[in-house]
Amino acid sequence: MGILSSSIARKVSMALSALFLVFFLLIHVSVNLVSVFSEDAFNAASHFMGTNPLIQFVMQPVLIFGVVFHFVLGFILELKNRKAVGVKSYAKNNGAANSTWMSRNMIYSGLAILAFIALHFIDFWLPEINHKYIEVLPEDPTRYYHELREKFVNPIRVGAYVLAFVFLALHLLHGFQSAFQSMGMNNKYTKCVKNFGKTYAIVIPLLFIFIALFHHFTH
Amino acid sequence: MNLTLKIWRQKGPQDKGKMVDYKVNDISEHMSFLEMMDVLNEQLVNSGEEPVAFDHDCREGICGMCSLYINGEAHGPDRGITTCQLHMRMFNDGDTIYIEPWRAAAFPVIKDLVVDRTAFERIQQAGGYISVNTSGNTQDANSLPISKHAADEAMDAAACIGCGACVATCKNSSAMLFVGAKVSQYALLPQGKIEAADRVMNMVHQMDLEGFGNCTNTGACEIECPKGITLVNIARMNREFLKASLKG
Amino acid sequence: MSVLDSKVPEGPIKDKWTNYKNKINLVNPANKRNIDIIVVGTGLAGGSAAATLAEQGYNVKAFCYQDSPRRAHSIAAQGGINASKNYMGDGDSDYRLFYDTVKGGDYRSREANVYRLAEVSGNIIDQCVAQGVPFARDYGGLLDNRSFGGVLVSRTFYAKGQTGQQLLLGAYSAMNRQIARGKIEMFNRHEMLDVVKIDGKARGIITRNLITGEIDRHSAHAVVIATGGYGNVYFLSTNAMGSNATAAWKIHKKGAFFANPCFTQIHPTCIPRSGDYQSKLTLMSESLRNDGRIWVPAKIEDAKAIQQGKLKPTEIAEEDRDYYLERRYPAFGNLVPRDVASRAAKERCDAGYGVNATGEAVYLDFASAIERYGKEQAKIHGIKNPSKEKITELGEGIIEAKYGNLFQMYEKIVAENPYKTPMMIYPATHYTMGGVWVDYNLMTTVPGLYCLGEANFSDHGANRLGASALMQGLADGYFVLPYTIGDYLSNEIRTGKIPTDTKEFDEVEKEVKDRINFFINNKGTKSVDHFHKRLGKVMWDKVGMARNEKGLKEAMAEIKAIREEFWKDVKVPGDANEMNLELEKAGRVADFLELGELFAKDALNRNESCGGHYREESVVKEGEQKGEALRNDDEYKYVAAWEYKGEPADAVLHKEELEFKDIELKQRSYK
């Protein structure tokens, strides 16, 4: 990975994968949001996503790669940074004086999100893969909505889901504008980017949370 | 005012070091922080103890020598200043003040509060210059007009005093503000553009070799920088680096 | 004839340097590779010399006591650098810069050196721009100039209020390039403790590694000292805490004559002292005098009320203010040279009109500049009938753009907002015009030993004009020494590497080690600073802004007494073989304690008032100029170069008579 041997190259890679994931979130939340309005439309959209070969065999691997790349590189950066800090740390360090909690704790918000992704894999993705490619069960284009509703019955799962999206919001609050800075964009538009980033970081997770709660309470 | 000081003492590079408590009394609020340290040291010398070693020289905020981490912040609680410009009016009677050296693997402690910042030297040597001879046969200074805007921006970047507060305050011990400032100064000026690509590649490479961390854009460096060097300079360095990398 | 040979070339003044350069001996490039040069000090003079010599092909070893060459105290110069570019088209020329410098120096500098300085000044700007120094520019993209004290043209180039920093970083970047090429070997945190002479020539130095305490020997074919001035002899000065005279004093003791030590500049615009704990004084750039007006209350009762904190300066009506510089010197007003401005402030404060609690401060007021700029801006922006607030706002914007960093610095130190209330300033020791005597080649009286920048007695005579120190440092390092040193080194091409395992090195190293061991083992009772402060008080009280025979004689005796006590009773904790800041200070203060006495002796010898040296016995007795300094050209038109003879009091005076062929000697008048 010669290209990743430089600190700035790593920063930029982190930023590019982040922006890709940020974009994916938008698509994901859009599809999920359909479930609130229309069972049929949701089923149709899910069926398309689940069976379209372009999505399944190109986009899905790219997405998985993106996620894995982002968190593996995140770990590598964290380890390198810990090494750079050295063994001795400050007896008193007032980080809050000059930076946000979010920016200092990306690794923890990231870990929380990673844990959620693991849960998400077990909940949605593994049964889905099993259904389609291992047991090769007959495709029923109307099954998706009911499966979704089932998942949001358990209040513990909904609670975990909500919590995970709070962490996502925290992660995005720093991550969104940080990605632009990493790619060298800091100019007169930065204020807009920052504001848009903050809005995005709050609205998208809120929508996910709303969808979960909606299905939980309308069951 | 009377104060309790918790100061990092370390005999030499190999010594383990520890925090030690001291008391100083009758400190005037008009004193500078380092004058308060002078009072402590005079006290220590008079009682036969070794004074606390700390770096300082110009005591007017420009040489970049002074480097104390005070109460958890580089150059202490005030903004836009170096340690030597910090005044005791920022503290209250009875306060306990933590005084520590810059912490970073690339800045090893030499003694007490004195650290080795020669990593910065090597980064500068890797490309922090324009390759012209000091021959006296250069072209007339006004034969190369430079827009006021570019000159002013270059000046803002060039204001860096190389104190290392950015590294000290960074949770990742990243030196990108320091390097970004130097890269920016030359990238903004036509004289510097000629070797801009080599410069940024070489300086960033050396920065990585020295063991500084990766920037995660927390922005702490910009807040603590005594000279107001902004993150814009890091972004510009990132851009310059990308440009140089893509060109090959 | 005097033992001093200034080696000034023959010919008309404007051709001297060119003709000299054309005929000077050179060293061919292949031979330069075999020649080593030591440069001590990495400020503007040392840094630029090291870089240029290395570019030329010599092997350079450079030394500084700081952790990086970039931290030399040249970095603190704020205002600017002079050059006779005449970019402003206001009638400037090499001759005019030369004339202003000689006049500003009160006719105590060497004409030929000063002319050369003016001649190369333009090159410095070209060079620095090529290096990427971000000088201020106007909207057309060309370089901007400002005016400075003591002259009638705008010839000062500047980079915000950090010109010294930017020029030093330029020299530092040139050094870095040579360090990377292996042509400069850089020794940070190393202090030169003595020079080694072999067969009468300077052949090396002994240094102490300030981290490990190791004593090292370094040999070279020539040694260049560029270690700055000795202002810290006053304890309080605008110098850096570490600025010291050790290298200069050590070479003096080894045969280099020390010239005009009494020529010291007390800078008029420094932040006043606030208490006994004060460790240093901070300069506010002289450029502030371009826009600030200096005043004290006209009524003594107002002054008293201010000193007691009962009255604010803004409450004093315009007619109750005494703009004493404008009153006394209508032609130059607030822009009189530094020595004149400093003495005028002292005069007012001594008369009881001083304005802070200590009574040692005067006001520097920006209110009228803010109003003037505000109105100008309102016109530019087409604002009709602007309100007072709007004018102030616009005016403050301009002041901020010009001096923002200085104002911020002031506010941090004094905790008062200088946009709203006048600054308080008072004179402080700033620059030393005196120093090691050098000839036209910048060589001292020891062959192969050179001295540059503030460390030499140089080009500023008895008083230095603003923005000329940077010019001189860089001129010496970039454009003078690299040529003149070739003349000497051309005789060294067959010398070969100089060994350090000789008895000369043994002897000097032993001296150095003995002295260090003495300090460590002398279990005295008083700290180094204790003695330094006492020395500083004697210097300020008796060898300060105004001097007289009685005081100077007392000062000599008192300094000697302090020195003797120092050697008996100084306490230095810690060990020799580690970082030991007290030990470093002890060595430096020991040298100041000798230098201070020579300083007073020189001041005593020079019974005239000239430039920064003011003898109360030598003033105009009557007429319009009553009370102004009076020079005595008949008796003192010479450089006083002192030869070391064991004790400072025993130093032997050698005179270099000054000849003024191109400038008519006049009493300075800024009225």
Order of helices and strands of chain A: HHHHHHHH
Oligomer: heterotrimer
Specify the helix fraction band of chain C: 25-40%
Tell me the fraction of residues in β-strands of chain A, as a range. Answer: under 5%
Task: State the shape of chain C.
Answer: globular
Major sheet characteristics of chain C? 5 strands, parallel
Range of strand content of chain C: 5-15%
The averaged pLDDT of chain A comes out at 93
Whole-number total of structural domains of chain A: 1
CA-to-CA gap between the ends of chain A?
49 Å
Number of helices of chain C: 18
Total number of strands of chain A:
0
The greatest interface between two protein chains, and residues involved on each side, is: B-C, 79 and 80 residues
**Shape category of chain A:** globular
Overall description:
The complex is a heterotrimer of chains A (219), B (248) and C (671). The mean pLDDT of chain A is 93. Chain A has one domain. Chain A has eight helices and no strands. Chain A is mainly alpha-helical and 219 residues long. Chain B folds into two domains: 109 residues, Beta-grasp domain (Ubiquitin-like (UB roll), Roll), CATH 3.10.20.30; 130 residues, Alpha-helical ferredoxin (Fumarate Reductase Iron-sulfur Protein, Chain B, domain 2, Orthogonal Bundle), CATH 1.10.1060. In chain B, helix 5 runs antiparallel to helix 7. Chain B is elongated and about 60 Å long. Chain C starts with 12 loop residues before the first helix and ends in a 14-residue tail after the last strand. Among the domains of chain C are: 160 residues, no CATH class; 114 residues, Fumarate reductase/succinate dehydrogenase flavoprotein-like, C-terminal domain (Methane Monooxygenase Hydroxylase, Chain G, domain 1), CATH 1.20.58.100. Chain C contains 18 helices and 20 strands. At the B-C interface, helix 1, helix 2 and helix 3 of B face helix 3, helix 5, helix 6 and helix 12 of C.
Descriptors:
heterotrimer; B: 248 residues; alpha+beta; Ubiquitin-like (UB roll); Fumarate Reductase Iron-sulfur Protein, Chain B, domain 2; 2 domains; five-stranded mixed beta sheet; two-stranded antiparallel ribbon; 7 strands; 12% strand; C: 671 residues; Methane Monooxygenase Hydroxylase, Chain G, domain 1; five-stranded parallel beta sheet; five-stranded antiparallel beta sheet; 18 helices; 38% helix
